[in-house]
Amino acid sequence: MTVQNIETIATVGAGLIGSQVARLAARAGYKVVVSNSRGPETLADLVEELGPDARAATAAEAAAAGDLVVVTVPLHRYREVPVEPLAGKIVIDTNNYYPQRDGQIDELDSGRDTSAGLLQKHLPESHVVKGFNHIRAAELTTDGSPAGTPGRRALAIAGDDEAAKATVSALFDEFGFDAVDLGSLADSWRIQPGTPGYGPRDDADQLRTHLDEAVREG
Ligand SMILES: NC(=O)c1ccc[n+]([C@@H]2O[C@H](COP(=O)([O-])OP(=O)(O)OC[C@H]3O[C@@H](n4cnc5c(N)ncnc54)[C@H](OP(=O)(O)O)[C@@H]3O)[C@@H](O)[C@H]2O)c1
Hints:
This protein is α/β, with parallel strands linked by helices and about 220 residues long. It has a single domain, classed as NAD(P)-binding Rossmann-like Domain (Rossmann fold, 3-Layer(aba) Sandwich). β2, α2 and β3 form a beta-alpha-beta unit. The radius of gyration is 16 Å and the shape is globular. The structure holds NADP nicotinamide-adenine-dinucleotide phosphate (NAP). NADP nicotinamide-adenine-dinucleotide phosphate binds next to α1. The site of NADP nicotinamide-adenine-dinucleotide phosphate has 24 residues, from α1.
């Protein structure tokens, strides 16, 4: 059973997280289009592993092909994400801010914005939903379980568009995780690196507690 109106899931970025999301999507029966910065030919092994309904493309082509697109690149490269082909689409943002990798970003250091907020400003016509950002990549394919399983792992989402969040919640459920809606993109600092919910294997109640306990720094 696939989520309504989503036939193709594309990724902009196909590293640790992007490849794992692609595996979940292929496993769930979606068509998958993966992309990176070096070009589709560098993704041949991943495409072969994903199976006949998967292909690689340029980032712009992947963004155009996806009914839902996962942006999963090092944060300092978010301005390279194609804008026009993502207009009107749900975009899941997995990105985290690590200054040692991304350099200092004043809007984030000062607490004026969130990393997901920066992506939303870059993609003004898209419906950005924060997701998949607080789980280790490897655990995406090992920690899922059917709905109703006691202690089922939960993943946080945040966004400004309720319909987009409902779609992403349904997708997470299909991938084996409960979704916990923490609020708007402006609230998404509650699940950024260094907060209590970032990393541990929480079920929905534990994750809600950890989100409540988060304290903003900066
Ligand atoms: N690793 C984790 O467990 C984890 C967990 C949660 C969230 N995150 C966050 O999710 C994001 C991705 O993490 P990752 O660990 O998957 O990183 P990664 O393994 O370094 O992969 C990054 C991917 O982004 C691609 N990329 C870079 N610039 C691009 C561009 N302009 N257009 C298209 N693709 C581009 C890279 O392609 P090339 O290799 O061709 O340059 C690569 O496929 C980061 O912000 C990270 O902080 C990571």
